[in-house]
Amino acid sequence: MSSVQVVPLFSATSLKADYKIAKAALLERFRTAGNVDTLMRSLARLTDTALRGAWDACGLPPTLTLLAVGGYGRGELAPFSDIDILVLLPDGPNPQLETRLERFIGLAWDLGLELGSSVRTVEQCLEEAANDITVRTSLLEARRIVGSTSLFEGFAVHYREALDPRAFFQAKVLEMRQRHAKFQDTPYSLEPNIKESPGGLRDLQLILWVTQAAGFGSSWRELDARGLITEREARGLRRNESFLKTLRARLHVIAGRRQDILVFDLQIAVAESFGHKATDAKRASEHLMRRYYWAAKAVTQLATILIQNIEAQLFPDTSGITRVLSDHFVEKQGMLEIAGDDVFEREPHAILEAFLLYEKIRGVKGLSARTLRALYNARDTMDRHWRRDPENRRMFMEILQQPEGITHALRLMNQTSVLGRYLLNFRRIVGQMQHDLYHVYTVDQHILMVLRNLRRFAVAEHAHEYPFCSQLIANFERPWVLYVAALFHDIAKGRGGDHSKLGMADARRFCREHGIEADDTALVVWLVEHHLTMSQFAQKQDTSDPEVIKRFAELVHSERRLTALYLLTVADIRGTSPKVWNTWKGKLLEDLYRTTLNVLGGAQPDAHSELKSRQEEALALLRLETVPEHAHSALWDQLDVGYFLRHDAADIAWQTRVLHRHVNTPTPIVRARPWPIGEALQVLVYVQDRPDLFAGICAYFDRNGLSVLDARVSTTKHGYALDNFLVAHTERDVHYRDIANLVEQELAARLTADGTLLPEPSKGRLSRLSRTFPVTPRVDLRADERGQYYILSVSANDRPGLLYSIARVLAEHRVGVHAARINTLGERVEDVFLLDGRGLSDNRLQIQVETELLRAIAV
């Protein structure tokens, strides 16, 4: 091995300084309206120069070759991307060479290069590539930086000979599907990964990898020349690729590190770097994200077309016609294909016919590339006349009224932009973000998720998920009315004003234009107007109060309206975020539904009859548990009517069984059990009352990672607190049976100990999402209609310790809590408390309490 003069160490120091200065200059030029392709190529060339310098400084022999692989091999580098290199050896290294290679890699790191390095012979490369699709992909774009040209050329020949384009295509498509599944198969994440998410840069890279492997070309221009895409599609791909690359580069520069996830914290800064400005209606970030979603959607559409076309050329024997479906469509290997390229221009009705056939024909799993391309090119056809065509209106209603496939069809219509072209106001909410810390989907995806939830109620295979909903929808006449309401319930989001009121006008116009009968039109419009009402009644009002039920019954007016609103409400809450729905909310809604149904059926909401009914049912349950006949009297004689109205019969029986022997006990009693109908822990506390009791219990739950879902507080006639809490652990995999005994012992010990129950409040840290999109804290304290209680409503960002902070303020002013509804909506809380009215009639005290509460819940 020939010796090479080693460059002195000070040259390496100079190399590092030169690299740092040159890179900073490139990034600064890019910040001031530079071109992303120029930046990425310049960064690659700069890195080549630095690596050559390090290679020479370490005296590596000329028989070796240094290769750039992966994205760096393409001659492109994002500002803080990993730099993947391969040192290619003619044969195995000796100890002296290993030492020099280690020094080279260490020096490269010292220069500030984030290396991903490997050292292999040609044979080792081929072996690794055969076993690992990731290695096979990275070597596809290998590029020589320095060293032996002949070694590199020999490697390239052997690699090409070993590469099977068909197997490579299949492996990459499978890899893409697995990657998409990690992102729920949607490009509409509120914090998308610009590189890896569906519709991101990786999808574009994958296409060029498989076409390069097959010899079809390595650029959009070459794919256009080969006929795999049209010139218009090539322009769309170049435009969206450039936007995604620019977005990623700006994200790197602003973060000052490799950052491919467009997190909330950085969205505004990135948006402003593009020149977006905040308006009264929208944040700057919303303008940026809508642009991103439209780009990702276009990439998804065009990538689907290209992948199908590539597959047809790689596997020509499997692309024949399977059957003729209509004058306009045939089936090819499970895909719906147009019978001629000009079908949609000649027969615009065929656009919606495609989706109707997709629903109706079993075995059809998607639209072919030819059909997708024709839809992409038929956008100008979908104009005002097309929307107003009576046949198209009839066909759209038929799509909504099919027995199956509705969700898939509408999602596909949205992906291909047909839905937004047919419903122009739907087009306005495609890719629109919702910064309410509640929804985790864009508005269009939320609407389609709600529709999907309604459809699942009607599908027998999913009846086990929500059996009560499935039972109701099975007996609901014309369930498609619910689907229309779902389409329009949030369609007016982002316009300013009350979206429920604005959406009513859209829904009414749609029903009129589509010939929907007056009764069904009235129901659709009413559902859009009131789609939030049932959850507000269930979660924010005292539904044990007969007057509340009476008001709700008067509002819904009929059983059909009640059932429709209940089904839409459950589907809506389920379609906001996986975190928002829980069994407790489900029970609140179902209890409200059943109670209201009784009133609509003629039963009078009478507190006395309800009291008697619950007591009789509770006594029946106690007999089953062999509790002595009159044992309940000692406890029940100390309880008021409100207690019995706020608890159901099963809870009354459980609490009576626990307490009937301990009515006058001086010792605190705490009992806990897994909630019989859901994932939560039910905790009973019975102890002599004191002003700080509720706050102290909340402090214990907070310190132990237990989130209060519901609290029902009663005070007996002889001065005992009988409190019932429903709590859930912040860790979802907790077994509540395992922690029940611990809660009983610890909480009882805390209540027994002398001294205050109120530790100093510590404001828990807000989540990253809450810090980025803070909720303006709000406190509303007002007397109820009868002046017996005060209702406290609190809205704020959720954080550890929030409930205790509220309870402490109330305790310090000796304001008693009768009930609490703790309503957590993602990262936001909307809590409602029923307070003892004594003392709060003093305006000065009321203002002081409100002021201190605002201070306590502020971030």
UniProtKB/TrEMBL annotation:
GO molecular function: [protein-PII] uridylyltransferase activity; phosphoric diester hydrolase activity
Region (Uridylyltransferase) location: 1-324
GO BP terms in the entry: regulation of nitrogen utilization
Residue span(s) of domain ACT: 682-762, 791-859
Activity regulation, per record: Uridylyltransferase (UTase) activity is inhibited by glutamine, while glutamine activates uridylyl-removing (UR) activity.
Cofactor(s) listed in the protein's UniProt record: Mg(2+)
Keywords: Hydrolase, Magnesium, Multifunctional enzyme, Nucleotidyltransferase, Repeat, Transferase
EC number: 2.7.7.59, 3.1.4.-
SMART domains: HDc
Matches recorded under Pfam families: GlnD_UR_UTase (PF08335), HD (PF01966), NTP_transf_2 (PF01909)
Ranges of residues in domain HD: 443-565
UniProt keyword annotation of Disulfide bond present: no
Reaction(s) catalysed (UniProt annotation): [protein-PII]-L-tyrosine + UTP = [protein-PII]-uridylyl-L-tyrosine + diphosphate; [protein-PII]-uridylyl-L-tyrosine + H2O = [protein-PII]-L-tyrosine + UMP + H(+)
CDD domains, A to Z: ACT_ACR-UUR-like_2 (cd04899), ACT_UUR-like_1 (cd04900), HDc (cd00077), NT_GlnE_GlnD_like (cd05401)
PANTHER family, per database record: BIFUNCTIONAL URIDYLYLTRANSFERASE/URIDYLYL-REMOVING ENZYME, BIFUNCTIONAL URIDYLYLTRANSFERASE_URIDYLYL-REMOVING ENZYME
Domain notes from UniProt: Has four distinct domains: an N-terminal nucleotidyltransferase (NT) domain responsible for UTase activity, a central HD domain that encodes UR activity, and two C-terminal ACT domains that seem to have a role in glutamine sensing.
Function summary: Modifies, by uridylylation and deuridylylation, the PII regulatory proteins (GlnB and homologs), in response to the nitrogen status of the cell that GlnD senses through the glutamine level. Under low glutamine levels, catalyzes the conversion of the PII proteins and UTP to PII-UMP and PPi, while under higher glutamine levels, GlnD hydrolyzes PII-UMP to PII and UMP (deuridylylation). Thus, controls uridylylation state and activity of the PII proteins, and plays an important role in the regulation of nitrogen metabolism.
UniProt family annotation: Belongs to the GlnD family.
Full protein name: Bifunctional uridylyltransferase/uridylyl-removing enzyme
Species for this entry: Paraburkholderia megapolitana
